[in-house]
């Protein structure tokens, strides 16, 4: 069993992050009096939370993935995968726009930038 300080130090986190995750229902360490005691399974869960956060998941989705049946986890990951693909496409479009040598002094007159704007306007159309 490890203390909150030991677990926090292992992952380079402030202890209040672990307490927050506990309040959010992501962790439930045992108690010894008023002290939190983390098992190896709890430490694994902290690592899983960090991996999910690095992948861009929010705490609510992480909670669902850690606690829900497999079919619910699959739905969460599918939604996230779709959002991630959209973000990647937008980032690639932005990079392509920036990599070109645009002779336009005004960004708003650049054809590449205008195409990016047109795409965003289409996506947001009612």
Automatic annotation (TrEMBL):
This protein's UniProt keywords: DNA-binding, Repressor, Transcription, Transcription regulation
Transcription regulation among keywords: yes
InterPro entries: DNA-bd_dom_put_sf (IPR009061), MerR-type_HTH_dom (IPR000551), MerR_fam (IPR047057)
GO molecular function, one term: DNA-binding transcription factor activity
Top-level taxon in the UniProt lineage: Bacteria
Record-annotated HTH merR-type domain positions: 1-68
Protein known as: DNA-binding transcriptional regulator, MerR family
């Amino acid at each position: 069993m490890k203390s909150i300080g030991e677990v926090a130090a292992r992952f380079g986190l402030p202890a209040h992050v672990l307490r927050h995750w506990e309040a959010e229902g992501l962790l439930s360490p045992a108690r010894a009096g008023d002290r939190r005691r983390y098992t190896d399974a709890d430490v694994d869960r902290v690592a899983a939370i960090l991996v999910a956060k690095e992948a861009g998941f929010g705490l609510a989705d992480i909670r669902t993935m850690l606690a829900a049946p497999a079919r619910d986890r699959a739905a969460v990951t599918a939604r996230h995968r779709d959002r991630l693909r959209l973000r990647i496409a937008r980032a690639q479009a932005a990079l392509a726009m920036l990599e070109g040598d645009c002779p336009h002094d005004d960004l708003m007159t650049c054809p590449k930038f205008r195409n990016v704007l047109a795409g965003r306007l289409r996506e947001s159309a009612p």
